[in-house]
Each structure stands twice: as C-alpha cells, then as structure tokens.
Give the backbone structure.
Amino acid sequence: MSHSDIDISEFKSKLLDLLQGIVSFEQEQGKADSTVQLDQSRLGRLSRMDAIQVQAMADEALRRKQIYRQRIDAALIRIENGEFGLCCVCGEEIHPKRLSFDPTVLLCIDCANSQEC
C-alpha cells in the first residue's frame, strides 16, 4: 500500500457530502433554536423538565455536529496540503479501510492504540 493508493478525489467528495449534511442540520437547528417552549396542555414541573431536557439534547447534538464539522474542515485542509491519509503522529500512511470508515481520522491504528493507554 502506498499513499498513491488512496483516491483523494473520492475522499474529498465524501467529506464535502458530510459537510453539506452538517450545514443542512445547522440550518434546520437554527430555525428550531429558540427558548424552551412549554406544552400548555401539560402542567407542572415534569413538563418543564421534559422541555428543558429536549433542549439540552438538541444543544448537545449541535455541539457534536460542530466538532465533526471542524474535523471535516481539517481533513479538507490536509487534502489541499497533500497530507491527507498520513498519521499526524508518526507520519505513516493510514490504512484506506480506516479512512473509508472515518475520513476525518488523524492517526494510524498503531498510534491510536498507543494513545488509548
């Protein structure tokens, strides 16, 4: 396997598709992003707690999408710089199957395993 075995245009296309999905999610979230509205048909503390919990889950989903967007942006920069598919720690090639699973991955499997310890 060599770095040339990686189809950069395929990964770039996949990353751009992922980015578009996140942008769409952010736009939809922006439309729905507002103060917690209480269900007036349900009264009491539990309905307020439910509404606050739903809002917290939506906020967390948006936060995770924003982090993933940053990872996608970084992967696109690595493509432009000719560094895509190379481990950020050891500089070795990341296996194409690993990149296919997650094209934003920064580490080869060996470095990823050593960082978990």
